[in-house]
Design brief:
D-Maltodextrin-Binding Protein, domain 2, 2 domains, alpha/beta, globular, about 325 residues, 10 strands, 10-stranded mixed beta sheet
Length: about 325
């Protein structure tokens, strides 16, 4: 009888504690965010990922009244930025702003990753999608894609390409496969560094998203041979599509999205997801990306999870099709 009474008392106490804990947790979630939020970008400044992080960070700060800082952690195929986020407290105050490279392509390109982008992270919101541009130095002898392919076919391995991430590397390898050529990979820490290599003539060509490329094209720092999209980009209307340049079916896009550690409490994750999705659906966000030559992607957490899974399978197929050796 005594044992039964003791058990009843303990169960009642546990229920009481739980009842008191729920409002407390709800209050914490309602107060979130209450201090500085950090957006970690695994690439240098100047990339489409960095541009998105800074835009969304500014808007998030306006919505919440809390400062948002952007921290660039380039290098190591995005691994450095990923580990920085996953090693931070999982409290919602450290957000990973990644691209197709870190969140999908790496799975296809590497035999073994130090992280799992599907289980180590919880998706928050999609941000943007932008077509890739094939760019060469301003004084390059190649005026068209056909010029480039002609030389690449005649002298396999002569031309090299800069890639600022695993995503850009696979775009170039897919180009090699579709065009029937062989060009040599030269890795860089990010799209802006790869473009600098092309602008200086250090490398022969690169694929980079239009948000990072269009300013250099308009300034005469690099020459755009083609845009890898279904139709010409309004930001670079004089640049032909890959199909118009003799490569029908060749399309390549960069996309950007935000995630937090999968260990982050559900309430904080949902609050961030709601805020970022709200920003993505703002008319000014659409206008901002249109000026960049990109398009906003307004899917929330579940849409991003499904999209990410599909992208991983797509790039796995591309690795096989292009006969790219896993690293």
């Amino acid at each position: 009888m005594l044992k039964k009474s003791y058990r009843s008392v303990m169960m009642s106490a546990a229920v009481g504690c739980a009842a008191m804990l729920v409002p407390a947790l709800q209050a914490i979630a309602q107060d979130f965010p209450s201090r500085v939020i950090k957006f970690v970008v695994p690439f240098p400044p100047g990339s489409g990922t960095d541009t998105s992080a800074r835009y969304f960070g500014k808007k998030l700060s306006e919505l919440t009244g809390q400062p948002v800082i952007v921290e660039n952690r380039p290098g190591g195929n995005g691994f450095i930025g990923v580990q920085n986020v996953l090693s931070a407290p999982a409290d919602g105050y450290t957000v990973f702003v990644g691209s197709n490279s870190t969140l999908a392509v790496n799975v296809a390109l590497f035999k073994k990753l130090p992280y799992n982008p599907q289980t180590d992270f919880a998706p928050l919101s999609m941000m943007m999608r932008a077509p890739a541009v094939l760019a060469v130095p301003p004084n390059s002898p190649y005026k068209t894609v056909s010029d480039l392919i002609k030389v690449a076919k005649a002298q396999p391995g002569k031309l090299n390409y800069a890639s600022g991430s695993a995503g850009y590397q696979l775009m170039a390898e897919l180009f090699n496969d579709v065009a029937g050529v062989s060009t040599v990979h030269v890795p860089y820490k990010g799209a802006s560094d790869a473009l600098a290599g092309v602008a200086s003539g250090t490398v022969d060509l690169t694929f980079s998203d239009i948000t990072a490329t269009q300013g250099l094209v308009k300034g005469g720092k690099v020459r755009a041979l083609a845009v890898a999209s279904e139709r010409r980009a309004p930001a670079l209307p004089d640049v032909p599509t890959a199909a118009e340049s003799g490569l029908p079916g060749y399309q390549a896009y960069v996309w950007v999205g935000a995630m937090v550690s999968a260990k982050t409490p559900k309430a904080e994750t949902e609050k961030l997801s709601s805020l970022l999705t709200q920003i993505a659906r703002m008319p000014e966000t659409r206008e901002f990306y249109e000026r960049q030559g990109a398009e906003v992607m307004s899917g929330g957490a579940e849409e991003m999870r499904s999209f990410q899974a599909a992208e991983i399978e797509l790039w796995k197929k591309i690795v096989v099709k292009a006969k790219v050796e896993q690293q």
